[in-house]
Amino acid sequence: MAYKLRSRRTFSQAEQDAHQELLSTGRANMTGLPVLPNELLLEILSYWPSIPIPAKDRRVFSERYMERFHALLALSQTCRSLRNVLLPLVWERLEACASRKPLLSPLYHRKLILPWEKEVATELVRQLEVVTVRDPTLAVYVRTISVTLSRFSADTVYLELARCLALLPNLHTLQICGVGSSKALYEVFHQRVFKSVKTLVFPSNGYIVLSCCPEVRKVACTTSKELMSGGVKTMIKYCEQIESLDICFVGDGQLLQSEASG
From what superkingdom does this record's organism come (predicted)? Predict the structure, then answer.
C-alpha cells in the first residue's frame, strides 16, 4: 500500500518571500542567551548527542538522539539573533534514524511493519519536505544526511529521498544506517548520480548507492564477508576517487539489527 506521507500544503514563492521578510525584520533580542558569544553557545549545544559517522553496526538510535534537532529548532524560533546563528545548524544535519518507539528484535513478527519503521520513514519525508518544498532556501544548509531506510512504504520513501538528494547542492555526507528493502533501493537509485557526496556510509545490502556517488572519497560499510564481493566490484567500477575505506564485518543476521541503547 502506498501511504501519503507528504503534506498536501504547498507554499507559493510569494508566501515564502513574505515569510523570510517577516523573520528577517523581527526585533533582535539583546539580552539573555542570544548575547552569549557564538563559541560558548555552540559549546552548550554540543552536549546534545548527534548521530556518529560512521554509525558502524547501529541501525536505529534511541530517542535521546532526537533531542538536539528539536532543541535547536525551538531556540532558532525564539528571536532573530538566535535564528541567525542557529538556523544553519538546525538543517545542517538531516537525521531520521532514531525512534521513540520500542525497538523490538527484527526476529519478532518479521513480516510485520514495526512502529519504529513507520516513525523513521515519516520523519525522513517530513524533514525532506521542509527543506525542498516548504522552504527551499534551507536546502543550502544541508551537509549531512543520516537515515535508516525501513520497510514502511519503501517505494515512496526511497523515491522521495532520491528526488531530494538532487536538490541539496552542499550535501557532502550520506549515511544509510540500514536498508529494509534492497530491491526498492536498487529500483530507485541505480541510474542516479549525486556528485556532491564525498563521504558515504552504507550496509552491504545498500551498496548500489556507491554507483550513484562517483566523487566519493571516504567509504564506510557494515557487511558480512559473504556479501562484501558485490560492494567491492561496485567500488572498482564506479568510484575511482576513494581515499579511505572502513569495513565493519558482522554476521548476516545482524545487518538489520536495531539497538535500544544510546
Answer: Eukaryota
CATH domain 36-101+113-247 topology:
3.80.10
Please state, in angstroms and rounded to a whole number, the distance separating the CA atoms of residues 202 and 248. Answer: 11
Alpha-carbon gap, residue 27 to 75, rounded angstroms? 15
| H or E element, residue 123 | helix 115-129
**In the structure grid, which three cell numbers stand for residue 87, read together?**
538556523
> Up-side HSE of residue 190: CA atoms within 13 Å toward CB?
6
Backbone angles phi, psi at 91, to 5 degrees: -105, 5
**For residue 223, what is the enclosing H or E element?**
strand 218-223
Centre a 10 Å sphere on the Cβ of residue 68 and count the other Cβ atoms it contains. Answer: 20
Helix (H) or strand (E) holding 22: helix 13-24
* Residue the block writes with cell 552491504: 204
Question: Between 67-76 and 38-45, two packed helices, what is the crossing angle to 10 degrees?
Answer: 150
- Locate cell 535547536: which residue? 72
User: Tens of pLDDT along 72-98?
Assistant: 999 888 888 888 888 999 999 999 999
DSSP-derived letter for residue 4 is: -
Once rounded to an integer, what is the mean pLDDT over residues 234-251?
77
Segments making up each domain of the chain, as ranges: 36-101+113-247
Count CB atoms within 10 A of the CB of residue 100.
11
Question: Using an 8 Å Cβ cutoff, are 200 and 223 in contact?
Answer: no
Phi, psi of 158 (to 5 degrees): -65, -40
pTM, entire model: 0.79
Distance of alpha carbon 182 from alpha carbon 67, whole angstroms: 30
pLDDT in tens, 161-202: 999 999 999 999 999 999 999 999 999 999 899 999 999 999
- How many other C-beta atoms can be found within 10 angstroms of the C-beta atom of residue 259? 12
